[in-house]
Model the fold of this input.
Amino acid sequence: MVKYTLTFFIGLLVLFSGCFKDIPEFEDGYLNLNITIRYVEPRFGIDIVLDSAVVTLENADYKADVATDTTDSNGTVSFQELPWSKFIVTSDKEEMLDLGDGVVPVSLIADTVFLPEKEENVFTIFARGPAPEGLKINEIYTVGPPNNFFFFFDQYFELYNSSSDTAYLDGMIFCRMGSSLESVTYIYQFPGEPLIGREYPVAPDSFVVMAMDAYNYRDEIFSGLVSVDLSTADWEFVNAADPGDLNNNPDVPNIMNIEVGHTLDFMVGLSGDGLILGDGSDVNYFDGIDIESVVDCVEYSASPTHIKEMPEELDKGSGGVGQIKYSGSSLERRFAGFDTNNSTVDFVIITAPTIGYQH
Amino acid sequence: MRQNCILSILTVLILTTLSDGYENYLYRDYSVRNTYNLYDLVNNPAFLRLNNHEDLMTYEIRTGNQENGYQRAFDPERIETAGVDIFSYKALDEKSALATRIVYETSSLNNLYRSLEKDFYSDYFSYTDTTTGDVSYAGPRLSVIYNREIFSRLLTGLQIDYGIERGLKDVYTKCESISRNINVIWGLGYSSYSGTSLGASVRYFDRQGSYEAVKEITDAIVNTYMGYHIYYPEQPRSTNEKKVYAEGIEIDGQLSKKGFLVPSLKIEIAGGYGAKENSINAGGSSNPVQRGYWIREGGFANSILTYGGKQSKIGLELMAGLKRYHDWASPGDYDVINIENSITDIHYGIKTIIPIQSISLTIGYEAGSEDVNYHEYTVDYVFDEQLSRSLIFTDVDISLNQVMQMHYSVWFSNFEPWFYWNTSSIQTQGIEMGVERLFVFGKIGVSFQMEFWKPNDEMGSIDHFGIAFSFKK
Done:
């Protein structure tokens, strides 16, 4: 009897133990990355490795220190004994290159998002030149100030002219996008003739602030404690069909809604959306926006598991992961006009908005 | 006989409190201070009836206060507890018995720094936010034990424990936690006329925990710790949820032999082996993902040698035991080990019971060492230490007269704690006083306890005070 009982109990334990998961083969902290940074430009016969380039690893999973190292003469850098986690790898370097107009300094940028699958990882990141200079969506303030009544109406957007030439806003469009480039949620347009108008210039290295409403929210609503003063914004969004859009500031020019039947002001998602600045050559929003007419595109989302909506040709990633609603924080490019067409890399969360200047 | 009965059942109460609370611990700790009968040696319900022969009903109200003048990072500054405990034992007939217990406990953790857990340090994947607040916990716990003799001297028993506890933080994230715990033990036992008892039991336990943290403003950011040195920042959202699923199984065996080698010598041997799996999911209510899981597996053995036992003679008890288990944890996203922990715990103790007229004096000493090899791989942290501990105690039971008994206990101990205590050792000292009087309607008792923990070379101390009133009939 005792023998049978013991056999039964041991069998029961073995049965249940088999239900548990098997111990993984690898220990954490033994992830090794061997990264080579290369730049290839076949049109000009350039195929080089970037030596002495600073490579940065930012842990996208855990709250951990940023790892930084410099490539050797083979353009390679090695990171040893890292935790198994997702990393944002970035590198930039200025190289003297001949791109047809003689040898000139060219800023090269390399970036990728690395997901671990094995212990030893050897891979190459191909650098690219920066996106063409010009008007950039430089700052996006959407999350609202700290408050407990869901106030977010102090949203604004900032443009920056990163080129050495004057840019013109005439007839340009600014859109809030849906789930693709074919889906336009809001479309607002600057006054003037697209492409050829010269009435609304933006000087090189200058900022343009576009407010949902050009109003001093900080003093008028929050007694100077939080929020922003947008009464001196350069532009404000106005929708003639929006009866609630009462804060039309007579001193600030308007960016007008051109979508028939749309009755809301230009308000965007607090923690996620897609924005497009277009040259105005395509304003037929029914079939989306022609990709050739897009001057700049930014996708942002607070969610690390966000699924891309905008085309990767315009923006490879999305900025603002971890940004908190009603935190008073803002999303701004790392440097004024810094654009690699990858918002994951280009944008950083800053603790407070910087209206008309770079943090 | 009645006194023995009460004492043995009270031991049951104490052990049940320790092992079947809102967290089901896989292995119990033995101490030479306690007296173990056939039931509570491994909590085998088959032996309940052999230790208790008379019907009993006890009611207890208790309250406690603990001031954490010295604390770990995620401990509260003060803990207030209160509870009601009702226990009954009834022999249904000559062959079967039923014991039930109902407990309702409340606790308030004041100025709890960031932790959203009742005990941050009991899990490898603990939830935190960025605020300090008061957290209140409350809930009932029910236990039923049924015991029956199925053949001559062959016994079986079933024990079911079920508990629910709800916690609520008073500031944002206003985290609400609900914990549900079930513990089922089925046991078989054989007890011969010659004083040899043999038993085996199988235990299944299961716990589900749910946490819901909401956000109002920016400060309340939720994080999930992976061990004690690195955390996963949870995605800011209106509601963050964490769900814990834990289940395990344990088999235990026991052997007791009276008249071992010499007539007054009794030997008791207990052992067990088990495993427990914990799975932790976290995220938003619509898309929770596995944040991690961890498994504990191992066993224990304990032996007790008792000499004497009759009231007129000096009694002597020796205890020695070993506990060994291994934990490993893995994050949900990647199939790697991020935490590993191996524990080998050895303990031994001795106590002597000296009867002096109407006084029973117990003096004892026990010591042990815990060989810890704790490793966090993600941040490469190693805690490889042998932690020693020792305890000296004395218990005095005085029969003042036919109806009144008094009880005093004094103890001193010293132990080397884990790294998160941030001190090399902690000295404790405690005193307990109690009095119990027999009336025509039953026994009324009151006991008072104080215990002080003083860390070595550190300011502050942990001061615990408790008082309990009981009524037994």
